[in-house]
């Protein structure tokens, strides 16, 4: 049985080098959102589902430089695994964005304001 506490004590620089060797295929995505609150909400919604394959690693975070940017980093053992994982993530992201578009008050207010400015 693996002790989770011991795995968190691995030096991050060593772990990063190890991940690059074991997971050579990678992609980084930056997803801009209208507000920091929506970026945080998207992050929380997408973090719930872990990667199902041990052949793929994913890291989600809010950009330290811009709090409206959701950063997504994927690493995988093969390009095929990377493609499958990113396609699945994009489907999940689309669902989260659709829900925000239809149900979030900030997005609805912005849509109404945009519609009024176009009509004027």
UniProtKB/TrEMBL annotation:
Keywords: Cytoplasm, Nucleus, tRNA processing. It holds the Pfam family Pcc1. It comes from the Eukaryota. GO terms for cellular component: cytoplasm; EKC/KEOPS complex; nucleus. It is found in: Cytoplasm; Nucleus. InterPro entries: CTAG/Pcc1. Its main location: cytoplasm. Belongs to the CTAG/PCC1 family. This is Transcription factor pcc1. One of its GO terms (biological process) is tRNA threonylcarbamoyladenosine metabolic process.
């Amino acid at each position: 049985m693996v002790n989770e506490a011991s795995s968190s004590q691995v030096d991050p620089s060593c772990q990063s080098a190890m991940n690059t060797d074991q997971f050579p295929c990678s992609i980084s995505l930056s997803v801009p959102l209208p507000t920091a609150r929506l970026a945080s909400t998207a992050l929380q919604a997408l973090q719930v589902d872990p990667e199902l394959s041990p052949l793929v690693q994913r890291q989600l975070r809010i950009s330290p430089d811009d709090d409206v940017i959701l950063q997504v980093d994927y690493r995988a053992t093969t390009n095929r695994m990377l493609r499958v994982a990113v396609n699945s993530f994009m489907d999940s992201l689309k669902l989260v964005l659709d829900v925000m578009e239809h149900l979030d008050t900030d997005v609805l207010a912005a849509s109404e304001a945009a519609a009024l400015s176009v009509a004027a």
